[in-house]
Design goal:
A: UDP-N-acetylmuramoyl-L-alanine:D-glutamate ligase; 2 domains; 9-stranded mixed beta sheet; 6-stranded mixed beta sheet; globular; B: 237 residues; alpha/beta; Rossmann fold; two-stranded antiparallel ribbon; 28% helix
Chain lengths: 412, 237
Amino acid sequence: MNKLPLRARLATSVGGAASKVSRLAGRGDGSVIGGIIGLRLEPGLLAMLAQDREVVLVTGTNGKTTTTRLVTAALAPLGEQIASNAFGANMEAGMASALGQAPDATIAVLECDEKYIPSVLKATHARVLVLLNLSRDQMDRAAEIWLLARRWREAIAAAPDCHVVANADDPLIAWAAAEAPDVTWVAAGQRWHDDSWCCPRCGSHLRRAGEDWKCGECSFTRPPVRWALSGDDVIDPAGRVRPLDLALPGRANRSNAVVALAVAEVFGVDVVHALRGLRDVASVAGRYTTVERRGVAIRLLLAKNPAGWLEALDVLRPPPEPVLLAVNAQVPDGRDTSWLWDVDYRRLRGRQVFVGGERRTDLAVRLEADDVTFEVVAGIDEVVDRVGRGSLEVIGNYTAFQQIRTVLGRAA
Amino acid sequence: MTSSLRLVWVYPDLLSTYGDRGNLLVLERRARLRDIGVESVFVNSDQPVPRDGDIYLLGGGEDLPQVLAARRLRADGGLAAAADRGAVVFAVCAGYQLLGHEFGGADGEPTAGLGILDIRSGRGDRRAVGEIVADIDPGLGVPALTGFENHQGVTRRGPDAAPLAQVSVGIGNGDGTEGAYAGRVLGTYSHGPALVRNPGLADLLLGWVVGPMRPLPAERDELALTLRRERLAAVAP
């Protein structure tokens, strides 16, 4: 830290003070405001703060926050201090703030928004770049995903020393990482296929056989994998099969865990030790947490886009457990609700479903088309009153999820 | 039950970026509620487009898939043949553009479309993103269009295509009009599940095939009409 130039040190300490004030004022966890002020004072702050640290960048459409948490847990056996933007503040300010708050950390595990990968990769000279998946998400403001993959390719080509850990089951990810000199390919699965019918290289139809995929025209093929998720087990590079036994639910999290093990391998952490760390992670930034509210046990799931909803619906406990679905369309959610029509809700037929959030009418029309019966509610407390006791599953998109957390937080 | 209605979803593998499935689901539902049998066919880009469909649906897509879809549809010829014999074609966004004579390709270069609709599209300076409201041609007898647009296209019409609507909120074609139609071929920049908020437009398409239809029972239309009102109120000046 003392090696930082005076201006950067000032930027860090002023930013840090702002974080503290922000937290005391009850305005969020303070992880962004400090970074914003710091970056304004010193635009090169992120590069300076990242210097002499081993940085892992985690990106993709879904699973960034969870994987960041899992990678941090998998690296814990190293016994080093690890800096991480663990609460999902994944733009430059959030990363700078996380680094500034942990001046002695020798390792940094940073979640990075997809769009910022080129600049952040350059600024941090990351040792490892983790590419999880790419699918449609908040199309009203994000770049189209094929363009995004093309920018990643260029960024990776300009960073030959970076080791890439990439999901071989997502063709767009495989294309983005294909030219990297050093890649660990992971069979992390792809539940959502609707954005990868075509070869990212030549546009022809991709042929799939089970997990495997290849282009019918050019030679583009699923790369051979080093790590694989197989049901509830991980298969390591030596071919040994081990149960994951995670506390986190769902296939998506099992695949995130396998990715974390592959990152741990780059750092020389033994799979047995890394696994121990992964199993301790029970909730991530409020997700998967169970909160008690007036006698009802509420479990919170976050889903921000069609692929995320598919995974969240997979995780739902079976009926008769009631479900609340809550959808907003604020700027962080994307202003457009068209994506609702990409999610198949038919499996909710026959169970008790509540519909909430600011765009509940959009959601109601969607469920009506899928012949799902539902009750429209004004908020989480109305659901709690109607359910009365037992447990409740909640799936919300970004700001709807945060609003429910705020209400439940007041009760706790 | 009257004879079955054949819906053809053209290239969901290439042209389905924004919940385009919604249009198919809305047409299916509104037909079934009137006891009209429906058969839906999904045609991927490596399959021939059947020529005997009643309503063809084309969705939105990114630049590269749009170019590929146009190339394959031209080679296949099925959609043009169906449109020729009077089938209904409803296309949104990228699908709308590729019905025309040309559109902007992956780097904005002019790319040949199908020429089913007398329009030419290119790339504008700015992306049009947001709610759109437009008054539909009174001749079609359908209330105002409400939707969400997200495109960078600018579309000019030739003499053989009429504007679908006049824009009151949003960008549309870029000249104050939105969408275009000729006969039973109709395209719009209101992307994705455009028919969800516009049940009148959905019924117009169905009616072109099966003739005059009775209105839906009010309770079956209530949610869609509530959604229309909410979205129109949200952007009211």
